Amino acid sequence: MVLEVVVLEVVAVVVKIPAFEKRVPIQKQPPTLPIVEILLMAIAALWSNKLRTVLTMLGVIIGITAVIAVTSVGQGVQAETEANLQGLGADILRVRAGAASSGNVSQGRGSATTLTWSDAQAIASQVSVARTVTAYLEQSSQVVYEQNNTAVTILGTDTHYADVNNITLQSGRYFTEDELTDARPVAVLGPTVRDDLFGEDNSPIGHSIRIQGQRYTVLGVANEKGAQGRENPDEQVYVPLTNMSARLVGNNALSGIAVQGISVEVTEQALLEAADFQMTNLLRVRHDIYPERGDEDDFEIVSAADLVETLTSTVGLFSVMVAAIAAISLVVGGIGIANIMLVSVVERTREIGIRKAVGATNSAILSQFMAEAIAISAAGGVLGVAMGIAIARIAATLFDFPFVISLWSIALGVGLSFAIGLVAGVIPARSAARLDPINALRSG
Q: Which of 2, 4, 9, 320 is the most exposed place for a label (fewest CB within 10 A)?
């Protein structure tokens, strides 16, 4: 303190005595300080007020963390879902029955009896680009073996369902055409169903299970596939379509066997559009639907590619929305930096006056305060990126989806933090550079 007072008095004397100015020539353009020295001075100034510096960085840290974490989680979820949907078959079209309604309330696609097994057989014989066609009927039910029971999805299928949906068996066999024709009570279990009813180390082949009070002989156990969108083949039981229609559901179509969906594997993925066109026209003719007279289709055709596109669009919109919210946090952080730097200029008025009195130029003062603002935001950006990556890694581990970090999101986070510091530091730095040294020395 004593040294500071002495320096202030000496500078005041120098400023007030014109004769001294004549005897000691003042360097009008002192050499510019090196960038490293400016940064070291900025860091030292920030370190002297550690708590205030940390609190100032919080807005930037939170904003950058949100941007990185949300971007990573969104990309991870998208990659996982795309992989699951691709597992359904990139060259497969799925025809779903129309929606039944009760009291003007739709029951959802597949609830109406607008598709039949004969529709599937017609597609197989008349759509030139169709390689394999299979139909299915499904419902939820309890499956019982001795004292064990579990809730599953029962799928009534034909013999082509396993090939189209890439279902392989770890033991036993799938049912045959004769068993399908005769509507025999046989079943193939998903691995999770086998584990729940029989245990992992026990073979269910040849044993009988009960479905809605009906006995079914187990023929085989499917290999594990994992969840695919809303479906999980590991928790399904496959029985002949004819048997399910007759014994579990009942023939509820005006003619033939009603099905909820038809899966069509095309000869090559490039022909999906052609297959869609041919199937649409065929089903319209079979169902007596004429769009020119205002009729609406009582079926819907979708593909895995459509689902992936819809998902990508949805996840993208969600990511943009959350990123916009994070951007607001970054703006708040920038305002906080500007506010604190303005306060710092007021608190350090005497320091600025001393520096200018001994020869510091406006650009030197400007550079120091700009460096402090950029250092705060850059440090906040680095910490935000690190925290965002850590949160994304934890989320990917907890919820079991791929951990994805794109370089552009990191570059965006660091670039935003640098830009915030640059913008937020302009006004305080200009204010400090424009201070009059005499008035600055007399303040405080």
A: 2
Please give the Cα distance from 154 to 244 (Å, whole number).
9
Tokens for 288, please give them.
């007596």
Same domain, 126 and 65: no
Residue 287 main-chain phi, psi, to 5 deg: -100, 5
Closest to 209 in 3D by CA, of 189, 180, 229, 236: 189
| pTM beyond 0.85 | no
Could you tell me the CA-to-CA distances from 403 to 75, 80, 300, 312, 346 in Å, in that order?
8, 10, 35, 17, 47
User: Is residue 279 a contact partner of residue 264, using CB atoms and an 8 Å limit?
Assistant: yes
Q: Are residues 70 and 123 in the same domain?
A: no
Contact between 173 and 220 (Cβ < 8 Å): yes
| Total number of domains constituting the chain | 2
Final residue of a structural domain among 249, 272, 297? 297
pLDDT in tens, 194-240: 999 999 888 999 999 999 989 999 999 999 987 665 678 899 999 99
Quick one: 277 and 317 in the same domain?
no
Which amino acid, 427?
I
Half-sphere exposure of 292 (CA within 13 A, CB side): 2
**What does the alpha-carbon distance between residue 65 and residue 191 come to, in Å, rounded to a whole number?**
41
- Can you tell me the distance from the alpha carbon of 86 to that of 145, in angstroms, rounded to the nearest whole number? 34
The answer to whether the CB of 279 falls within 8 A of the CB of 266 is no
* Domain identity same for 209 and 339: no
Residue 368 CA, distance from chain mean position = 41
The CB density around residue 179, as the number of other CB atoms within 10 Å, is 19
Taking the C-alpha atoms of residue 400 and residue 386, their distance in angstroms, rounded to an integer, is 21
Kindly provide the b/e burial profile for residues 34-53, where b requires at least 16 CB atoms within 10 angstroms of the residue's own CB: eeeebbebbeebbeeeeeeb
Same domain, 38 and 157: no
Which residue(s) pair with 172 in the sheet? 220
Residue among 190, 186, 301 at smallest CA distance from 244? 186
If asked whether residues 326 and 276 sit together in one domain, one would say: no
Give residue 414's pLDDT. 76
261 in helix, strand or coil? strand
Q: Where does a domain end: 297, 320, 352?
A: 297
Its domain, for residue 282, covers: 113-297
Report the distance separating Cα 80 and Cα 398, nearest Å. Answer: 14
Terminal CA-CA length for the chain: 14
